[in-house]
Specification:
Length: about 200
């Protein structure tokens, strides 16, 4: 029987070489970004990389990442340690490009999401994370379609084997966090991360 580590190593090589969205004409250049860690109890799933992430080759290495890691530091989890212990993936692994409106990055299309989803499903199956952090609305409703960001942030959404914690997307939070209720929800979510990280499995 093959080990999960070997199987994952092969999967990650496939992801690195993946050019599906480029071949379909959805993006001009495929350059998959993710940060593999195995074994791990934790996984983080974002929406898609941005330009900085694409050039650096690391998830959350741009401005949004600065906010995310500031939050995680508040939860007692320094960036270096987080990157070493958490498998960081995304709904789609390649930069989708700028939004045609000129405002920010384009969200991945349904077709791109469908092409990339099998990689995520295989990682979830083989990594068997006990805790998953979902970042942003699109990521939250992909896994929890009956939730909204407001309903999900601040709670632990539990399935049989996994605890799911939702965070707002750090690049789109400035107005979301204007509301005291939302700031309190973020505080609760970070407290849950601190508590789950300290808990024994
Ligand atoms: S977004 Fe995913 S499916 Fe599309 S080219 Fe990149 S790795 Fe492949």
């Amino acid at each position: 029987m093959r080990s999960a580590g070997k199987t994952l190593t092969e999967l990650w090589a496939q992801v690195r070489a993946c050019r599906r969205c480029q071949e379909e004409g959805f993006i001009p250049r495929a350059a998959p970004v993710f940060s593999p860690v195995f074994p791990t109890r934790w996984m983080l799933i974002g929406q898609a990389p941005g330009t900085v992430e694409e050039s650096v080759g690391l998830p959350f290495s741009g401005r949004a990442g600065s906010s995310l890691f500031r939050w995680l530091a508040e939860a007692g989890w320094p960036e270096t340690e987080f990157r070493q212990t958490v498998h960081m993936a995304a709904l789609t692994r390649c930069f989708p490009g700028k939004n045609p409106s000129g405002k920010g990055d384009r969200a991945p299309s349904a077709a791109e999401l469908a092409l990339c989803r099998p990689y995520l499903e295989q990682e979830l199956e083989w990594l068997e994370p006990k805790h998953v952090i979902l970042v942003g609305t699109m990521t939250t409703v992909t896994f929890w379609p009956k939730e909204t960001l407001v309903s999900a942030v601040g709670r632990i959404l539990a399935t049989q084997s996994t605890d799911w914690i939702c965070l707002p997307h750090p690049s789109g939070t400035s107005r979301w966090l204007n509301r005291p209720l939302h700031r309190e929800k973020l505080r609760q979510a970070l407290a849950h991360i601190r508590e789950l990280r300290g808990a024994r499995d």
